[in-house]
Amino acid sequence: MSPPVLWQTEWCPASRRVRQRLTELGVEYVARQVPVEREKRGELVETTGQTSIPALVDRGRVVVGGDAILDYLDSRFPEPPEALRHRAKATRARERDLEEACQQLALTTR
Q: What digits encode the pLDDT tens for the residues 7-48?
């Protein structure tokens, strides 16, 4: 059976949350980058019937929207023991990113 396909962008916060959850669950998936411009999302529309991201295609089912995808993933895949470690590492990484951004902002506003 083919892996789930996630239609997403790197700049989309909902896409990031879905990628993080897929990692926590240990799910191998295919990430498809979507153009920023909605009018250039023909392949996404052809595959999912939608222009919105994130969109997940799994076993012929299309799930659209970050919260809906997270709910679907939680009902489809059991959470492995290492999920908590993945979540903790991701939280620390986001905290470091935020600290760096705040430091940069402080330097530019002086």
A: 999 999 999 999 999 999 999 999 999 999 989 999 999 999
Angle at 68 between CA 5 and CA 56, to 5 degrees: 10
Token pair for 75: 């009902």
Which residue type does 45 have?
Answer: V
Cα separation values, 33 from 6, 41, 55, 67, 92, Å: 8, 10, 11, 19, 26
Lookup: tokens for 32: 């498809």
What predicted TM-score, i.e. pTM, was given to this entire model?
A: 0.82
C-beta of residue 48 within 8 angstroms of C-beta of residue 54: no
CA trace torsion 95, 100, 105, 110 (10° rounding): 130
Helix (H, G, I), strand (E, B) or coil at 40: helix
**Using N-to-C axis directions, what is the helix angle for 66-76 and 13-25, rounded to 10°?**
10
Report the C-alpha gap between 110 and 98 in whole angstroms. Answer: 19
Q: Give the integer Cα–Cα distance in Å for 7 and 101.
A: 28
